[in-house]
Structure formats: structure tokens, C-alpha cells
């Protein structure tokens, strides 16, 4: 069935959309990229040109391969040019009113057999699918930035998505070189639901004067080998994006765990969005490191053996992952794949858990709770099941760890 795919449409050619168009063209699909006007189209074409030039300069593409890829790419300002597309994916701004207009239009323009996909990172795929007369052929296909590089693709299904559509989109994701995980429609999906609350945790620690931004960022690099800390990552992703995801999670779960840090909200209000505005938690290369924090809580964290700063960020994320697995939303393999291939983690949450042991993770969570440093009131049941004393306790389903399944 995948071999029958010929023409793919990509609507929205910002950095992400242009990357998606490039990925499909590299995989041999004929791609038409659509933008709202000529200026946006020129910017999108520029994104593709820049990416391909970089690949050639690094020896990852030959000039002949680049020419072949470019021959499969066409650009248009008319959605009507998608009238014979087999598959269309959108990467327009994350505003439901824009998606509503687009999907209503695509539903009218495209043949009934065309699969429509959204690259949304946090909006409801179910709501988007309900905008069309073909909800069984609408899915989420969530890429990670930069799309030509990051290997993860989240395939998000709704209660209306047909099994055939899921099979086709999953196969397409593999054909374009991605590692797909297939999951249901839930706030934040897997990667953002694990990553953004962790970023929010880092902001909360900073807001409460527990440590400097440099100490917070270095702590997780040391504890888990992450390529960057949560505050640097917030600046890179964009504080407005982080806040939007937290608000989506809050709206869906109404759990204090997903309450956005007041500091995060204030910084977005002030227009300090991170690298895109030149000001976030960091302001530039010449900025001096912050002085050591001297508050009572900062002293407690420095002195208390069970309160390692890095572990205070990693343990809640492991707990989140175990709850996700315990809910039956994702498997251990899914959460590890999402964080490794979508977020650049060297090890996934369950691998980090195995490395530390449940007892140490729970000790950190309990110690944080004693000082009101976390909203995790009770560790996840799956974590508790992994304690040595719980091996013969059948109160949580006979013991053992479902994350190994």
C-alpha cells in the first residue's frame, strides 16, 4: 500500500514544515509544499535549500542526490494543488482556528481516500479529525525538530482512526527513516508530556531560589548525561511553547503536577521567550554566572544527602513515565524510544530507573515531598511495586514491573 503513495502535500513551510517536506522528498516521494503567500513560500524554500546545502557540505549528500531530491519538490501558494495528493500533512501554527480552516479546506479539496495528518505537538487530534467528513483517515504524525535529523515520529490515533490508516501511516513513517511509536490522543502525547513538566520542574527550582540556572542545568548533565539542562532547553524550545504545552496538560488532567510555574507564565507575558527573542533564562554569551543561592532551601538541598539536585529533576520524570506505563497509555519501549529519539536522551526513563533502582528514586521523591519540593504526593504504583518488600505483595497486581513488558 505504501508503494502506491506518490504525491505528498506539506502545508506550512516554517522550519518544521520545510524539514518534513525535505524528509519525504529524500525518501523518494513527490512533494508539493504549500504556503499562504509568496513571501512565506520563499522562506520555506530557503529553509530547504539551506538544509540541503549543509548536508552536501558535510558530505552527507552528493550533488546528484541533492538534484534528485529537488526534482521531487514543487512549491505552491494554492491549496488546490493538493487535489490529487495521496497524503497531506500540515505544520501550520498551533492555533485551532487555523487548523479548523485548513482541515475544512483539505477535506473539500482532497479525494476521499487521501489521508490527512497533523503535526500538532499538543492540540487534540480528535477535535481536528472531527472537523472533517473523513475522521477515519485523520491522524497525528508528530515530528521533532530538526525533522531531517530526529528519528522519532509519534503516530497519534483517535477513537475514529481506522486500523488501515494507522498501518499505512506507521509504514510511511518507517519508509521516511523514522522510528514510529503509535499512541492514542492524549495531552502532550508521550515526549512532550514527559519533557515539558521536567522543564517546568527546573523552572520551579530556579524560581524558589534552590540553585542558580547554571547549577540546575549542570546537575542533570552530570546525573543523567543529558546534552543540556532544563533552563537551556526551555530557551531553545521557546518559553511560549513550554507554557502552551503545560496549559494543555493542565486542561486535560487538572493535576497540580501540570500547573505551569508562575515564573514561566510571567516570562512569557514579558516577551522573554528564549533564543527566539534573545532573552530567556540566559541572555547571551558574555553573561556572568549567577552567584550561589543562600536561601534556607538552597542550604538544605546542598546539605541533605537524599536531595541531589540532578536527581530532584530526574526522579519526578521517571515517576511520570511509570504512571504513563501504569495507565496503559504507553509501553516502556515507547517512553524510552520517545525520549531517546525525540529528545536526545542517552537513556530513556525506564533505563534511568533500572540504573538507579526504584528505592533510590522513591527516596528522592519522598525527601522532596518532606520539604514541599515536588507536587508528587505518592510515588507511582509501578515504582512502589518494584521495592524489594513489595515482591510478595500482590496488592498492585502481583508485583513485578510492567515496564519490562
How would you characterize the overall build of this protein?
Keywords: Oxidoreductase. Belongs to the 3-hydroxyacyl-CoA dehydrogenase family. Pathway: Lipid metabolism; butanoate metabolism. InterPro entries: 3-OHacyl-CoA_DH_NAD-bd, 3HC_DH_C, 6-PGluconate_DH-like_C_sf, 6PGD_dom2, NAD(P)-bd_dom_sf. The protein has helices spanning 15-26, 38-57, 63-71, 96-109, 125-129, 163-175, 191-207, 213-224, 230-237, 239-253, 262-269, 296-303, 309-326, 332-343, 349-356, 358-370, 381-385; strands spanning 7-11, 30-34, 73-76, 87-90, 115-118, 138-142, 152-157, 179-184. It is of the alpha/beta class and 405 residues long. An eight-stranded mixed beta sheet has the order 3-2-1-4-5-6-7-8, sandwiched between helices. α1 links the parallel β1 and β2 (30-34). It is globular. The protein starts with 6 loop residues before the first strand and ends in a 20-residue tail after the last helix.
Strand/helix succession: EHEHHEEHEHEEHEHHHHHHHHHHH
Question: What's the number of helices?
Answer: 17
- Helix fraction, binned, reads 40-55%
Q: How does the overall form come out from the CA principal axes?
A: globular
Main sheet properties = 8 strands, mixed
* Straight-line N-to-C gap: 31 Å
Radius of gyration using CA atoms only: 22 Å
Beta-strand percentage range: 5-15%
Structure summary, number of beta strands? 8
Strand order of the largest sheet: 3-2-1-4-5-6-7-8
Low-confidence stretches: 394-405
What would you call the structural class? alpha/beta
Mean pLDDT: 93
Amino acid at each position: 500500500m505504501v508503494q502506491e503513495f506518490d504525491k505528498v502535500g506539506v502545508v506550512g513551510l516554517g522550519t518544521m514544515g520545510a524539514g518534513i517536506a525535505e524528509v519525504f522528498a529524500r525518501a523518494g516521494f513527490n512533494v508539493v509544499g504549500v504556503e499562504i503567500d509568496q513571501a512565506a513560500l520563499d522562506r520555506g524554500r530557503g529553509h530547504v535549500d539551506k538544509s540541503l546545502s549543509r548536508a552536501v557540505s558535510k558530505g552527507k549528500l552528493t550533488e546528484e542526490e541533492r538534484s534528485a531530491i529537488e526534482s521531487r519538490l514543487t512549491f505552491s501558494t494554492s491549496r488546490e494543488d493538493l487535489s490529487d495528493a495521496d497524503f497531506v500533512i500540515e505544520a501550520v501554527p498551533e492555533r485551532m482556528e487555523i487548523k479548523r480552516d485548513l482541515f475544512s479546506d483539505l477535506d473539500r479539496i482532497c479525494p476521499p481516500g487521501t489521508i490527512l495528518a497533523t503535526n500538532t505537538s499538543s492540540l487534540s487530534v480528535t477535535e481536528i479529525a472531527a472537523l472533517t467528513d473523513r475522521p477515519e483517515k485523520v491522524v497525528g504524525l508528530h515530528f521533532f525538530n530538526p525533522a531531517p535529523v530526529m528519528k522519532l515520529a509519534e503516530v497519534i490515533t483517535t477513537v475514529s482512526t481506522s486500523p488501515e490508516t494507522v498501518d499505512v501511516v506507521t509504514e510511511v513513517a518507517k519508509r521516511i527513516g523514522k522510528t514510529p511509536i503509535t499512541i492514542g490522543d492524549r495531552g502532550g502525547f508521550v515526549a512532550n508530556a514527559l519533557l515539558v513538566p521536567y522543564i517546568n520542574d527546573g523552572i520551579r527550582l530556579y524560581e524558589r531560589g534552590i540553585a542558580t540556572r547554571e547549577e540546575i542545568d549542570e546537575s542533570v548533565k552530570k546525573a543523567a548525561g543529558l546534552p543540556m539542562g532544563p533552563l537551556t532547553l526551555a530557551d531553545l524550545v521557546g518559553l511560549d511553547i513550554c507554557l502552551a504545552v503545560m496549559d494543555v496538560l493542565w486542561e486535560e488532567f487538572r493535576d497540580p503536577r501540570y500547573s505551569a510555574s508562575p515564573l514561566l507564565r510571567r516570562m512569557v507575558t514579558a516577551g522573554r521567550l528564549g533564543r527566539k527573542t534573545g532573552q530567556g533564562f540566559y541572555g547571551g554569551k558574555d553573561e556572568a554566572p549567577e552567584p550561589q543561592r543562600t536561601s534556607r532551601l538552597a542550604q538544605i538541598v546542598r546539605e541533605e544527602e537524599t536531595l541531589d539536585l540532578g536527581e530532584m529533576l530526574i526522579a519526578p520524570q521517571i515517576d511520570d513515565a511509570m504512571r504513563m506505563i501504569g495507565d496503559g497509555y504507553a509501553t516502556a519501549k515507547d517512553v524510552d524510544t520517545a525520549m531517546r529519539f525525540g529528545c536526545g536522551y542517552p537513556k530513556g526513563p525506564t533505563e534511568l530507573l533500572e540504573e538507579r533502582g526504584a528505592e533510590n528514586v522513591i527516596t528522592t521523591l519522598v525527601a522532596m515531598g518532606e520539604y514541599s519540593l515536588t507536587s508528587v504526593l505518592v510515588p507511582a504504583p509501578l515504582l512502589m511495586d518494584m521495592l524489594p518488600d513489595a515482591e510478595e505483595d500482590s496488592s498492585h497486581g502481583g508485583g513485578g514491573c510492567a515496564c519490562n513488558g
